Amino acid sequence: MSRDPTLNGMLYFEAVARHGGVTKAAEELGVSASAVSQQIKLLEQQLGVRLFFREKRQFRLTADGERLFHSTSAAFRMIRDARQLVARQRERRQLILRVSPSFGVRWLGPRLAGFIHQHPSWDLHVDATPDPTDFDREAVDLDVRYGAGDWSGLYVEDILDDYVLPMCSPAYLAHLREIVTPSAGQADLIGQARLIDSVKTLYRWDAWLERAGITPATDDARLRFDRSSMALQLGVRGVGIVLESVTLAHDELADGTLVPVCPALGALRFPAYWLMGPSRNQSRRIVQLFRDWLREECARHEALTQALLARLDCPVVPIATPGTRHPGQGEAIEISGS
């Protein structure tokens, strides 16, 4: 007689004893009924005792079977509980993050390596989507969202201001200077340019032109895109002037592939990027770590942005968040990602 019955044999025995038959045990285990019967027969041979009375298709435990079932059921219950505990612990070590697409690709993505190096044991899941999270229906810990910050019932933190100004490639700017009169001012350049519009940004061309007192020569050639990253790519390619985020175009402005068209008119500054999520998530260790890391990255970026604008001779013009409405002024606006 073997003193070491197989684990499979014990597992199959416990299932047959619990179900009172081979068929249901086989269905639960995902094996054939004959495989279960063979394991039970082998286990009885190894133990040298009879474990079941076979009565037609019913299996009734013998006294030895009762003793073994009591022990195996307790042991497998402990194993299942331990497995569930490990699974729950793994879930608690996971951060599920949602982010506005262009911000995720251009700003957050390149910086995430730093967070991962600092916290290599945490699982990170990032979903870049233009739609804000429905935290009541979706398993998301935090959302880094571009918008007006008017999300009710959530923890909402202003993490980063945006700076908006007209920009284009140096070649396109040179082309504009060739087609306008020498006495024309910088703002007159925009009146002759093809405008590239990011339609989901908070501050768009119509508002900027009105503020600057500029009337474009024509609106026919305006290009419209629902992703800031696409609009900026066309600006770099010399297709036209894009009114866009210094936050998203920081690298291009720093290396000169994009240049301000009217630096004297300044960069409009307003709150635009927010960290939000259910209050219940804010006490989680991983959420606190990510929030602290993100604040540090945003502070570092803010200092770099201020230095960059100073080098480009662009003064900062603070304004309120465009498009915000106060209670009683109508329905809340819908803000998508940028």
UniProtKB/TrEMBL annotation:
The keyword Transcription regulation applies. Keywords: DNA-binding, Transcription, Transcription regulation. InterPro entries: LysR-type_TF_proteobact-type (IPR058163), LysR_HTH_N (IPR000847), LysR_subst-bd (IPR005119), WH-like_DNA-bd_sf (IPR036388), WH_DNA-bd_sf (IPR036390). SUPFAM superfamilies: Periplasmic binding protein-like II, Winged helix' DNA-binding domain. It comes from the Bacteria. One of its GO terms (biological process) is DNA-templated transcription. GO terms for molecular function: DNA-binding transcription factor activity; sequence-specific DNA binding. Residues 5-62 form the HTH lysR-type domain. The keyword tRNA-binding does not apply. Belongs to the LysR transcriptional regulatory family. PANTHER family: HTH-TYPE TRANSCRIPTIONAL REGULATOR, HTH-TYPE TRANSCRIPTIONAL REGULATOR TRPI. This is LysR family glycine cleavage system transcriptional activator. It comes from Roseospira visakhapatnamensis.
